[in-house]
Specification:
- This protein is α+β, with helices and mostly antiparallel strands.
- It folds into 2 domains: 1-58, Uridine Diphospho-n-acetylenolpyruvylglucosamine Reductase, domain 2 (2-Layer Sandwich); 63-117 and 158-323, Enolase-like, domain 1 (2-Layer Sandwich).
- Helices cover 29% and strands 21% of the residues.
- It has a 5-stranded antiparallel sheet. A 4-stranded antiparallel sheet has the order 9-10-11-12, with helices on both faces.
- Strand 11 (248-257) and strand 12 (264-265) form a beta hairpin.
- Helix 5 runs antiparallel to helix 9 (163-169) and helix 10 packs antiparallel against helix 11.
- It is globular.
- Bound molecules: flavin-adenine dinucleotide.
- Residues 29-37, 39, 54, 74, 78, 101-102, 106, 109-111, 113-115, 117-118, 161-162, 206-207, 231-233 line the site of flavin-adenine dinucleotide.
């Protein structure tokens, strides 16, 4: 990896100043923990003449349980979220997903906002400059065409953040600030299915807060498969949230990461509402998750394994949550 290129560092004290600075410097980037951005700058995957450090923004790291739910500042670190007693108790999928990211030294710096906005990944993209040059680059940066799907007009780089699927099944919203004001959208709407333009936010927008509604009666979990047992992105990650009512499924949500260019909710699970968790229901869960988990060859690991493992994870997690005492 190369050393960091020269850049100017700006340190705004408020979120309003941060988005104003971002709008005023078109070649700038926000930096929070820097654990995704800085390696990408060093590899030449990202260019930025100005970095806007969000580390000095006021009230950006708070985690508060209020009457309407959990409010998390986008600058809260993943270590703080994973260790927070209320998060662990009431929003287990979120605590488990935060704990699953990288390793301990990353998590003390890495923030929730950075995790939601991290770059998409592909075996043809996350490489050194000489490797990429030797392979004639790819459409995500400097090249033409997608190496993963040669006739494709789009890029298939995969979104591989661990926390987004947990927030999706917990029905969380993100608050986004721009120089023109703020807006709030569901976490799922932050993304679109394009490896080059996976975020729906404009360049001068930043995430300020994540709001998770109270989860009374819900149980939830997050799991991923990875090549190494630690410090590794998910080959496939699955979050599940379910609610029981007198031995029947009252509600079920499943979301996946690592298997497409955006984290996404599994569709068609409403048909299970009111049903027993029997073999037919489990088969529906597997079939619907298979439809969502259309991994492409973006890692060195066999793509058929990645497509098959997400539905298996989903079925096992639903069975485990179902069997757990309330
Ligand atoms: C060895 C290694 C292993 C890793 N393993 C994993 C893993 O297993 N799972 C995983 O999910 N990630 C992994 N990561 C990636 C990274 O560590 C995490 O995703 C981390 O949460 C990123 O957060 P950050 O604060 O460091 O983001 P930064 O690097 O500071 O920023 C990432 C991106 O988000 C933007 N950004 C940051 N904050 C905001 C905001 N509030 N609003 C708008 N945009 C913002 C930045 O401009 C940048 O584009 C790994 C990284 C490394 C180096």
């Amino acid at each position: 990896m190369n050393s960091l290129p020269d850049f100017q560092l700006l340190r705004p004290a408020t979120a309003q100043d941060a988005v104003r600075l971002r709008a005023g410097h078109p070649t700038s980037r926000f930096v929070a923990g820097g654990t995704d951005l800085l390696p990408n700058l060093r590899r030449g995957l990202v260019q930025a003449k100005v970095l806007i450090d969000l580390g000095g923004v006021a009230d950006f790291t708070d985690i508060e349980l209020r009457s309407d739910g959990l409010h998390i500042g986008a600058g809260a670190t993943l270590a703080k979220i994973a260790a927070h007693p209320a998060v662990r108790l009431q929003f287990a999928a979120l605590a488990q997903a935060a704990q699953a990211v990288a390793g301990p030294t990353h998590r003390v710096a890495a923030t929730l906002g950075g995790n939601l906005c991290l770059d998409t990944r592909c075996v043809y993209y996350n490489q050194s400059e000489p490797w990429r040059q030797g392979n004639n680059y790819c459409m995500k940066l400097l090249g033409e065409g997608c190496r993963v799907a040669k006739k494709s007009k789009r890029c298939y780089a995969a979104f591989s953040g661990d926390v987004a699927p947990a927030l999706i099944v917990l029905n969380a919203q993100v608050e986004i600030l721009s120089p023109n004001g703020s807006r709030s959208i569901p976490v799922a709407d932050l993304y679109q299915d394009d490896g080059m333009a996976w975020l729906t936010m404009a360049d001068d927008e930043m995430i300020t807060t994540i709001r998770v509604p109270l989860s009374d009666g819900w149980s939830s979990a997050y799991e991923k498969v990875q090549v190494r047992g630690a410090i590794d992105f998910p080959l496939a990650g699955v979050a599940v949230a379910l609610k029981r009512d007198q031995g029947r499924l009252a509600a079920l949500r499943i979301a996946c990461t690592g298997v497409s260019s955006r984290p996404l909710a599994v569709q068609g699970l409403e048909q299970l509402t009111g049903r027993l968790l029997d073999a037919d229901s489990l088969q529906t869960i597997v079939a619907q998750t298979e439809l969502a988990a259309g991994a492409m060859h973006t890692t060195l690991v066999d793509v058929l394994y990645r497509r098959a493992v997400a539905p298996v994870l989903a079925r096992r997690m639903v069975e485990r949550l179902w069997a757990a005492p309330d």
